């Protein structure tokens, strides 16, 4: 079964639909990446999946059940979210912020249970934040802060992890750092990961499954080999890409590219 | 491992800070309480006060103490607690440290209602003592509901920034209307209104204590239980939804609680502002951003602030009194500016 099934959803504001009749399935235990040009509706799709935006029609199914009919807390026990613009209130330590990930599991009141602590420490551990746990969260660097948000989502203990541009604003090394972490979580623990990435080469290198969008519709979906072709890249991004095989993953990556003006040939090196 | 071993250094340190803050605040409130007992137009020596408290005073002394001074002090404490908690909840819900009960129209609404009442129906002094708080409460609640309805948008619900801006606009409108209406007031009523607006704790007998107490006893434990929800709301809409918070529902419930608390307080104390702004602020500096700590401690800070302000107001220009609301503003605003200047961003 798929982790998430997006079934004929239309999303947007009354007359101005950003997404129309879109259907897509997110495979379980895989890394799925949504790519597409600015304004193609990929963030809208993600926000609908994580129930920030409401559908006008259609539905998103979480393991067979329509997500808006489920209790939002129950959903939060199965799917964690890292929004694009997460901001920490001042005056919270890294530990406190990560501990908020336990929110859906906690009873109204009461202290953190032993199980809560186990999850929090595990999340701090895999994200390499153990030494920083007593620091104020907003004194950290961008890369560290992104790790804190990922740690918070991890301490939620969910099988599904949804991330909206987790590498934006990070430098090259920190971008790779985050993606390797996500890859490890997927390989070692079988977590389903869905994310939006702007960097096509990262998407190709780290994904099992890619979804390419344009103008609110899915242009193509499949393995990186199926999606990262000259044809599709021209259709989706209007670029002529020079593709080579990535030495680290053997998936195609884009060496360089030209804007499409005329139908100049694109080449695979 | 016991839970103590699980805790991090910063957690333990913060818990110590919280305990210390509670202890210091309790001591300060007690000292202030004792001073306040001895402050007033008719001075009682500490001995007389003590004797009266244990039932050995003269009739006049016990009248002053039990029927005038104590109820007023208790009202000051309760109002301080209520406004501070209301402010703490509001700041959490709208995610803006400048929020306070005034921005959801509490003070303006209550003021307008009181004003309409005294200018159209009767003179202030003739009205039965319980009518005024009820009128003020209705005005405060009405203004808050109006602001909520105007800020509400279908499909999107209530956004903090729209709520704040609508609140500012409505309050400005109401204040303008009040100035126009003031022109028609006779001098006696005008003076009553001016004192009311300045926040003299005028409802000072045990009946008002009884009227105020249920609100606090029900709503404060309720919002305290919701502390973890407030923590999560503070992370922003998308994160909060991802963590499984029922955004709209929780926001509405918490707003309603804050309105209930502040309206009940203002209807008895008059238009006191600033406590709801500064008490949670001070508290954050003491214990950080977790609402499990902010709510109880800002309650204590609020109680201390208002009790001290009321005591000062009774003492400074004897035999006349300065309304507590003015004292809070006079002391509070420079301190607030100092805080802002010191805050590194």
From TrEMBL, chain A:
It comes from the Bacteria. It is a peripheral membrane protein. Keywords: ATP-binding, Cell membrane, Ion transport, Iron, Iron transport, Membrane, Nucleotide-binding, Transport. Residues 1-240 form the ABC transporter domain. GO terms for molecular function: ATP binding; ATP hydrolysis activity. The keyword Metal-binding does not apply. It is found in: Cell membrane. One of its GO terms (biological process) is iron ion transport. SMART domains: AAA. The keyword Cell membrane applies. Its main location: membrane. InterPro entries: AAA+_ATPase, ABC_transporter-like_ATP-bd, ABC_transporter-like_CS, P-loop_NTPase, Siderophore_ABC-ATPase. GO terms for cellular component: plasma membrane. PANTHER family: IRON(3+)-HYDROXAMATE IMPORT ATP-BINDING PROTEIN FHUC (PTHR42771:SF4). This is Iron complex transport system ATP-binding protein. It comes from Gracilibacillus orientalis. The lineage of its organism: Bacteria, Bacillati, Bacillota, Bacilli, Bacillales.
From TrEMBL, chain B:
Keywords: Cell membrane, Membrane, Transmembrane, Transmembrane helix, Transport. It comes from the Bacteria. One of its GO terms (molecular function) is transmembrane transporter activity. One of its GO terms (cellular component) is plasma membrane. GO terms for biological process: siderophore-iron import into cell. It is found in: Cell membrane. Its main location: membrane. CDD domains: TM_ABC_iron-siderophores_like. It is a multi-pass membrane protein. Pfam families: FecCD. The chain crosses the membrane at residues 20-37, 70-90, 102-124, 130-151, 163-185, 205-225, 253-281, 293-312, 324-341. Belongs to the binding-protein-dependent transport system permease family. FecCD subfamily. This is Iron complex transport system permease protein.
């Amino acid at each position: 079964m798929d982790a998430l099934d997006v079934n004929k959803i239309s999303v947007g504001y009354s007359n101005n639909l950003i997404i129309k009749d879109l259907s897509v399935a997110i495979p379980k235990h895989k890394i799925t990446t949504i790519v597409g040009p600015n304004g193609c509706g990929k963030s809208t799709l993600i926000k609908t999946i994580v129930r920030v935006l409401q559908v006008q029609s259609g539905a998103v199914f979480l393991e067979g059940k329509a997500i808006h009919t489920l209790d939002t807390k129950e959903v939060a026990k199965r799917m964690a979210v890292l929004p694009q613009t997460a901001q920490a209130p001042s005056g919270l330590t890294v530990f406190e912020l990560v501990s908020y990930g336990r929110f859906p599991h906690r009873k109204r009141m009461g202290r953190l249970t032993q199980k809560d602590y186990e999850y929090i420490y595990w999340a701090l551990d895999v994200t390499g934040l153990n030494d920083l746990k007593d620091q104020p969260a907003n004194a950290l660097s961008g890369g560290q802060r992104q790790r804190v948000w990922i740690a918070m989502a991890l301490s939620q203990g969910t099988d599904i992890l949804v991330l909206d541009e987790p590498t934006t604003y990070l430098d090259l090394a920190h971008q790779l750092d985050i993606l390797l972490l996500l890859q490890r979580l997927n390989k070692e623990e079988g977590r389903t990961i869905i994310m939006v990435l702007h960097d096509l080469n990262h998407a190709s290198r780290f994904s099992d499954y890619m979804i390419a969008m344009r103008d609110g519709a899915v242009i193509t979906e499949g393995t990186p080999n199926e999606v990262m072709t000259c044809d599709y890249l021209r259709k989706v991004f209007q670029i002529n890409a020079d593709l080579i095989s990535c030495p680290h993953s053997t998936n195609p990556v884009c060496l360089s590219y030209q804007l499409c003006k005329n139908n100049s040939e694109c080449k695979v090196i | 491992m016991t839970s103590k071993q699980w805790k991090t250094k910063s957690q333990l340190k913060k818990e110590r800070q919280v305990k210390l803050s509670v202890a210091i605040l309790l001591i300060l409130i007690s000292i202030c309480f004792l001073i306040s007992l001895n402050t007033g137009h008719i001075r009682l020596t500490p001995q007389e006060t003590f004797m009266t408290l244990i039932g050995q005073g003269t009739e006049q002394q016990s009248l002053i103490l039990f029927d005038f001074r104590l109820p007023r002090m208790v009202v000051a404490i309760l109002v301080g607690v209520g406004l501070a908690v209301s402010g703490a909840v509001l700041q959490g819900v709208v995610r803006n440290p400048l929020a306070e009960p005034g921005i959801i129209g509490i003070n303006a609404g209550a003021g307008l209602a009181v004003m309409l009442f005294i200018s159209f129906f009767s003179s202030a002094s003739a009205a039965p003592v319980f009518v005024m708080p009820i009128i003020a409460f209705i005005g405060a609640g009405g203004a808050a509901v109006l602001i909520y309805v105007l800020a509400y948008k279908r499909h999107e619900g209530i956004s903090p920034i729209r709520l704040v801006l609508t609140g500012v606009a409505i309050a400005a409108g109401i204040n303008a209307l009040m100035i126009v209406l003031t022109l028609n007031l006779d001098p006696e009523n005008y003076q009553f209104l001016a004192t009311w607006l300045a926040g003299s704790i005028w409802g000072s007998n045990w009946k008002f204590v009884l009227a105020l107490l249920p609100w606090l006893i029900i709503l404060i434990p309720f919002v305290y239980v919701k502390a973890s929800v407030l923590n999560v709301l503070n992370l922003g809409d998308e994160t909060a939804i991802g963590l499984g918070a029922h955004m709209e529902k929780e926001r509405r419930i918490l707003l309603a609680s804050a309105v209930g608390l502040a309206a009940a307080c203002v209807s008895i104390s008059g238009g006191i502002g600033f406590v709801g702004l500064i008490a949670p602020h001070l508290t954050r500096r003491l214990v950080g951003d977790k609402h499990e700590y902010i709510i109880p401690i800002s309650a204590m800070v609020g109680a201390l602030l208002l009790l001290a302000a009321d005591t000062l107001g009774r003492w400074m220009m004897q035999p006349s009194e300065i309304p507590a609301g003015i004292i809070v503003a006079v002391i509070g605003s420079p301190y607030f500016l100092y805080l802002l200047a010191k805050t590194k961003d």
